[in-house]
Fold this sequence. Notes:
Helix 3 runs antiparallel to helix 4, helix 4 (88-112) runs antiparallel to helix 5 and helix 5 runs antiparallel to helix 6. The relative contact order is 0.14. The protein has 216 residues and is mainly alpha-helical. It has helices at 2-16, 22-25, 39-76, 88-112, 117-144, 151-171, 177-205.
Amino acid sequence: MCGRSGATSRKRWPSSTRRRSPASSGWRSSASTPEGPPASVELAIDQTVFIILAWLFVAAVAVHNLEEALLLPAWSGQAGRWHSPVGAREFRFAVSMLTLLAGTTAVLASVQGRGSLGAYLLSGYALAMLLNVVFPHLLATMAMRRYMPGTATAVALNLPVTAALLRQAFREEYIAPMRFAWAGPAVVMAIMLSIPALFYLGRKLWPDTGKASRRT
């Protein structure tokens, strides 16, 4: 009896430990019903992309302004109608302030979020730098048949970064098209009007001992 019961138990052991497949047991396979990430995760990813682009924009502006700060004052003396002669110190003061402004708008947009003043200021600044690629950089370079300082960084950095930033801002509703239609140009105009004022302030705070620039 003991021998037979042992044999019987040995025969039953494999069948009792056989694992059922998910299909036969009715278990649901996780691969068969894939689910996307939660909405909160997607929102966090979209916000992160926008913030990354905002700071890439600041970096692009800084590199572009550095190129201009080093080369444009000397170039401006022979630029004719494309640029008034400007002293090195006043110009470098102005682009330093504009770079600081770019960083400030990035901070505001990152902290305040969608539909905020910071988002519109940052996007308006991006629009200004996008337009700046064509005028004056590309147009001046082609018209004068001489390289305008800042053109390389404008095309290689400002163009793709500003386009991506504005696309993300619209896509994730950081800015609304109807409101940006007037807010964007308003920021562009404000930046343009600030440049002569920054030159003037730079001359007063940091007089150029070299060739005096023509007053604006």
